[in-house]
Design goal:
Shape: flat
Number of helices: 5
Largest sheet: none
Helix content: over 70%
Oligomer: single chain
Strand content: under 5%
Radius of gyration: 19 Å
Order of helices and strands: HHHHH
Distance between the termini: 44 Å
Length: 132
């Protein structure tokens, strides 16, 4: 098999990947909606592999798209103090949200809140690098 050299074919290949990803996630979302009509709490949990695969795909797509969208924004840089405030607010909000979802395991809820705050703050910090 030869390596693709033509730029138009590379662009078409990327469009095909994007289309396949959209079709795959649309099907997963339809299956999750169908299952949630039968059993809502059995569908929306971490034990369901379809839910985990859908969330993994959406999160990875949003993080990877930051490389393209951050480079074209004309916004001023955010100060380190404001980034720290965002991190603390996200940590508090998501920890409280996870405490509502997982009331028996408060430490796990705090770790989950810290993880979400760390990821979103990392994306903000990465975007801040490309701002003027």
């Amino acid at each position: 098999m030869k390596k693709v050299e033509d730029e138009r074919l590379k662009g078409q290949l990327l469009k095909n990947f994007k289309t396949a990803f959209l079709i795959e996630n649309s099907f997963i979302l339809l299956v999750l909606i169908y299952e949630s009509f039968k059993n809502v709490w059995g569908t929306v949990n971490a034990q369901n592999p379809l839910w985990a695969s859908f969330m993994l795909g959406v999160v990875s797509l949003s993080i990877l798209s930051q490389r393209v969208t951050a480079a074209i924004e004309d916004k001023p840089k955010i100060s380190k103090k404001r980034l720290t405030v965002y991190f603390v607010l996200e940590f508090l909000v998501f920890s409280l949200l996870f405490m509502l979802v997982i009331p028996k395991n408060i430490w796990i809820a705090i770790i989950c809140g810290l993880t979400v705050a760390f990821i979103t703050s990392s994306v903000l910090l990465y975007n801040n690098h490309y701002r003027d």
